[in-house]
Amino acid sequence: MGIKGNSKRFCRALPGLLLAALLLAACGKDEPQTKETELLLGFSQIGSESAWRIGNTKDIEEEAEKHGISLMLENANQKQENQIAAIRRFIAYKVDVIAFSPIVEDGWDNVLLEAQEAGIPVVLVDRDVNTENTELVTCKIGADFYKEGVMAGEYLIRKADSLGLEQVNIVEITGTDNSSPMVERQRGFLDAIAGDKRMKVLESIDGDFLKSRGAECMRSLLETYGDSIDVVYSHNDEMTLGALPEIEKAGYEPGKDMIIISIDGGQDAIDVLKEGRINCIVECTPKLGSELMETALKLKAGEEVEELIHPEEQVFSDEMDLTSIEPRGY
Ligand code: AHR
Q1: DSSP-derived secondary structure letter, 261
Q2: Mutate to test the pocket of ligand 1, among 53, 105, 262 (most ligand atoms within 8 A of CB)
Q3: How far is 46 from 127, CA to CA, in rounded Å?
Q4: Which of 212, 284, 287 best tests ligand 1's pocket when mutated (most atoms within 8 Å of CB)?
């Protein structure tokens, strides 16, 4: 397969082919010493906004290596236009399978149509797209974000019961606007608390899944609502870790004066949960690489694949024995 040009990272195939050429030259034999790579996967990653994302990239690189798949990995640095350009490059290179984590839900139809016309299957990893033409995407591998939101809401109801709270004022720091985890984590949470009259969302504010924005959002929420905040529901660990020092600077003890609920379950946040400064973390695993590679191999072999794969996820909270949590690896 002819691959060259400006791919940002390109594991395995080129070193393999180079090695084969060198061995041939050294040994003077006619037979190549290494087989040409059989599957080329183009993957467009959103960026490096969180420990979750960095863990996800690492997992995909490691699993590609393990499965003997050549990976053309491009980091879009948080820009949809970079992802669209990367997908166009994958089409031009005639990769076997395209995979990507769409930063937002809308705006993919044209480029997906181009992939379809080129006959290249597209796998969504982690996040979802919003399209009426469901045939543009072959399958999706990623968390059930709605369920994550529901689990966060159900934890809050149990916590409010155990503390005997009569009124629960919530502030929500959301992920990137129009991204599927933002939309679904909000929808699931609101559905879960809808029947509980004690619950009131004071404000939802866009923290873009970033630590620095988590801090900014929290400062602004504290200025507006101060003492009335009972709960901070944050759509990822990164923003939670940004928000906590702001709560402390304002003179409150997170985990005690305010109930803190987060999503992801990276090691740094789990350590803070163990300290009692976070009350609950709903797991969202970044370890999607193995399923992605298995799926890509099946697609290349012309086999059927599952349309939707959700990994198993759990809740870590002050309701459990926290010493039982295994090292998270991200
Ligand atoms: O799409 C998954 C989300 O994206 C994770 O919760 C977050 O940490 C990441 O940036």
Answers
A1: E
A2: 53
A3: 10
A4: 284
**In this structure, are residues 53 and 45 in contact, taking their beta carbons and an 8 Å threshold?**
yes
Q: How far is the CA of 116 from the centre of ligand 1 (A)?
A: 27
Q: Can you read off the two tokens belonging to residue 252?
A: 């409150």
- H-helix segments, 128-259: 145-163, 180-193, 211-225, 237-249
Q: What is the pTM of this model?
A: 0.89
**pLDDT per position as a tens digit, 124-163:** 999 999 999 999 999 999 999 999 999 999 999 999 999 9
| Distance between CA atoms of residues 100 and 231, nearest Å | 34
Q: Residue 61 is encoded by which pair of tokens?
A: 């690189």
Q: Is 176 in the pocket of ligand 1 (CB under 6 A)?
A: no
pLDDT, tens only, 58-76: 999 999 999 999 999 999 9
d(CA 245, ligand 1 centre) in Å? 21
